[in-house]
Each structure stands twice: as C-alpha cells, then as structure tokens.
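Long-time lurker, first post. I've been practising inverse folding by hand and with some scripts of my own, and I keep getting stuck on stretches where the structure tokens seem ambiguous. Below is the full token string for one chain I'm working on. Before anyone asks, I'm not after the true native sequence, just a reasonable design that respects the backbone. If someone could post their per-position residues I'd love to compare against what I wrote down in my notebook.
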C-alpha cells in the first residue's frame, strides 16, 4: 500500500462498485471514498465491499463530494448507462448535467488531484471536465480506448496464440462507434500484425466492428459492462500511484483537433506526461480527423 494515496469513486453503481472492488484487491491505495447521490446505494455498497476488507489493506467508506474533491485520484463513474442499441454519445445530455453538478459539488478540487473520467461519452465528458474543473489538462484524463485496446489485444492474442501483452496494437480515437484500429503500426515482436498468416486475409472492417460492438453485445446480454473497465481503471490507478509511466491509449486533449480523443500517452503520478506520436497511414488519419470533427461539434455545444 502506498501511504496517503486516497482515491474517490463518484457513482456507486455497477462500474463504481466494481472499480472499488478491483482497487481493494489491488491494495495500492490507503483509502477509497465512495460517493453517490443515492445514500442507500453508498451504504449498501460500503457494507458489502467492507466484507472483503479482510483481504485488503485499503479502507473503504462513504463520503461527501467535498471530501472526494480533496482526494489524490478522483474517478467519475456517475452517469446514465446505455440501453441496448443506444450509443454512448446519446447519453451526453443526461451525463453533462450530472458531471456539471459533480464538479461544482467538489469545488475547490485539490490542485494536484488527477480526475479520471469513466462515465460516457467519456471523450466528450473529459473535454468538459477539463474546462469545468480548473485543473491542468494533463490531470484530467479519460479511460478512453484503453478498454477497446484490451478487447483488441485479447482477440488478436487468441487468434495468434501469444500472450496479450505481446500484442502491440491500439484502438484510437473515440471510445465509441467511430474508433479506429491503428493497423499500420501494430506488431508482435517487431513483425507487422498483418504479416501474420492468421491475420493476412482478415476482413478489417468486420474485425473492427466486432471490437467496437463488444460493449453492445454485453449490454444486450446482461444490461451493462463493468469488469473490463474496472480492470483498466485499477491498473491506471496503480500506474499513477506508483509513477509507472506506462504507455496507454487514454482520452487526452489533442491540440491539432481542438478536442479530446484517445492517443497513446505516458501516464505517471502527475497525470499525462506526454503524447506519443504514433504512425498512422492516410486512411487511419482521415478517419480520426472525421471523428474529431464530429466530437468537437458536440463539445462546442456544451463548453467553449
Ligand atoms: N468508459 C468506459 O469504458 C465505460 C463507461 N461506462 C459508463 O459508466 C457509467 C456508469 O455505468 P454503471 O455504473 O453501469 O451505471 P449505474 O446506473 O449502475 O450507476 C450509475 C450511478 O451514478 C449515480 N449518479 C447519478 N447521478 C449522480 C450524481 N449527480 N452524483 C453522484 N452519483 C450520481 C447513480 O445514482 C448510480 O448509482 C455510464 O455512463 C456507462 O456508460 C461503463 C462501462 C465502461
Ligand atoms: C459501456 C462501455 O463504454 C464499454 O463497455 O465499452
């Protein structure tokens, strides 16, 4: 456990509770403070999660928005989730209002805090949180396409027969329907991914649809996704707390596009340290730009 690493989880629904459980198991934070507008939900989750306290050195309790604002890492999961067939972008009206009220209720936010957005549409909400929170942009991050990239690596790893962490491949852009797979830079052991016989003749569009459609598939079957994102977020918390400087595809402000999208970034204890300029071919670049223009139009409706 790293002494003094306090994490707030705002939103104690499926995603917030599962992230809290992953953090408990990870034993990296000193304390988790769970916050929700529905007090009974917080009480219930804390009682349930504290039954697992015997396997952890991390304490969990309910708290106020003000206390959350003073934590080292503030994870925002509060928000409506997609109904089957609903897109993430369609959540913006509801989740903008929730985010606005959460950020106002936490003010003044600790100046060194890292704000980690998870609620959807995560890229647009990250952009809005960068504007509303008053924190430097590198401290306001979205989980972005880290989860999509994990889905991609799993699928590739199982078709080639290597470990997932041997697959160097990213989903970039929107954590949503316009995301792109950066095929042109993807490799295993330095060999371009598409040179592997197992992948040489794949239908890239169909493959990409399976990755971007995985959340829809899970939501259709069980109503929500939460284990994958909890794994992603707890590993991001570890990276921040231990200043590990891993490279992850996260929602970050892209100067060139004037909006927030996922690109590979170096993550450390001060947040995003820098973006990695990944090679993209002209088709990938064009699709990314198209996605950025569409997202920026939505962002501009909410904050200038
Ligand atoms: N970025 C990603 O990869 C993923 C994002 N998500 C997103 O996470 C969000 C949460 O999903 P679930 O936990 O499944 O939903 P949920 O409905 O189980 O929980 C949402 C919680 O937010 C709370 N809430 C609403 N307004 C609030 C406010 N003003 N202050 C504090 N709490 C408030 C609700 O009371 C509820 O407990 C959704 O937007 C979902 O789309 C889900 C999975 C992956
Ligand atoms: C719900 C969501 O954003 C996901 O599982 O990718």
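-- Answer (accepted) --
I ran through it position by position. Result:
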């Amino acid at each position: 456990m790293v002494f003094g690493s306090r994490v707030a989880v705002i939103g104690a629904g499926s995603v917030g509770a599962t992230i809290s459980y992953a953090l408990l198991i990870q034993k990296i934070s000193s304390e988790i403070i769970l916050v929700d507008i529905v007090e009974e939900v917080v009480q219930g989750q804390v009682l349930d999660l504290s039954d697992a306290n015997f396997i952890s050195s991390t304490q969990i309790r309910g708290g106020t928005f003000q206390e959350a604002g003073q934590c080292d890492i503030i994870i925002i999961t509060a928000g409506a989730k997609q109904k089957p067939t609903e897109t993430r972008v369609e959540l913006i009206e509801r989740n903008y209002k929730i985010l606005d009220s959460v950020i106002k209720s936490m003010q003044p936010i600790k100046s060194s805090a890292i704000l980690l957005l998870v609620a959807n549409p995560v890229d647009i909400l990250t952009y809005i949180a960068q504007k509303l929170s008053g924190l430097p942009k590198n401290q306001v991050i979205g989980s972005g396409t880290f989860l999509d990239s994990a889905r991609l690596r799993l699928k590739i790893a199982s078709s080639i027969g290597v470990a997932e962490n041997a697959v160097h491949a990213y989903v970039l852009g929107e954590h949503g329907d316009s995301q792109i797979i950066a095929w042109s830079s993807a490799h295993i052991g330095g060999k371009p991914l598409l040179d592997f016989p197992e992948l040489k003749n794949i239908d890239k569009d169909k493959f990409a649809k399976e990755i971007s459609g995985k959340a829809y598939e899970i939501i259709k079957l069980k109503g929500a996704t939460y284990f994958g994102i909890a794994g992603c977020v707890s590993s991001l918390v570890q990276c921040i707390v231990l200043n590990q400087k891993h490279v992850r595809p996260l929602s970050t402000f892209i100067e060139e596009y004037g909006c927030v999208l996922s690109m590979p970034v170096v993550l450390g204890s001060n947040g995003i340290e820098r973006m990695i300029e990944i090679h993209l071919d002209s088709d990938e670049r064009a699709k990314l730009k198209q996605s950025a223009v569409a997202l920026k139009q939505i962002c501009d409706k909410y904050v200038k």
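A couple of notes from the structure itself: The chain has two domains: 6-142, 145-300. The chain is about 40% helix and 20% strand. Happy to go over any region you disagree with.
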